[in-house]
Design goal:
- This protein is mainly alpha-helical.
- It has one domain: Alpha-Beta Complex (Sufe protein. Chain: A), CATH 3.90.1010.
- The protein is built from eight helices and two strands; from the N terminus they run ααββαααααα.
- A hairpin with a 2-residue loop joins β1 and β2.
- α2 packs across α3 and α3 runs parallel beside α8.
- The radius of gyration is 14 Å and the shape is globular.
- The chain starts with a helix and ends with a helix.
- The model has no long low-confidence stretch (mean pLDDT 90).
């Protein structure tokens, strides 16, 4: 998965449909999530599309698998995950993920339906990071 800064470098030079295509491409780059992990427990609430996020701990670093049944939503999920993927839990617990995503201006680039679940995804990531950081 590409670092968030690298994604933004490309994103800022694109417009309209090209930005949508980049998000779709990011979604395709996500590590495949096995269907067995797509359960009610991994479902992110409040998203207009179905979104599943499965957090794991790999040697003290957070690692997420995720999927969505909508291509652009899956790209947004990939964007959120790229901000935190493979970072130490204590670092992620302190990270302002919304601020890290702010340069993408998703609320003005996408419909509110597409972005309404972003705060819930961020909350899920932060909750998991905090739990692991305190272990």
């Amino acid at each position: 998965m590409r670092p968030l800064d690298d994604i933004y470098e490309e994103y800022e030079f694109l417009e309209g449909d090209e930005r949508y295509r980049l998000l779709i491409e990011l979604g395709r780059e996500l590590e495949p999530m096995p269907d067995a992990l797509k359960t009610d427990a991994t479902l992110v609430r409040g998203c207009s599309a179905s979104v599943w996020v499965y957090p794991t701990d790999r040697e003290g670093k957070l690692h997420f698998m995720a999927d969505s049944n909508a291509a652009i939503t899956k790209g947004i999920v990939a964007l959120v995950i790229s901000a935190v993927q493979n970072k130490p839990a204590n670092e992620v617990a302190q990270l302002d993920i919304a601020a890290a995503l702010a340069p993408f201006d998703l609320k003005n680039q996408l419909s509110s339906n597409r972005t309404q679940g972003v705060p819930n995804m961020i909350a899920l990531v932060r909750e998991h990071a905090t739990r692991l950081a305190n272990v």
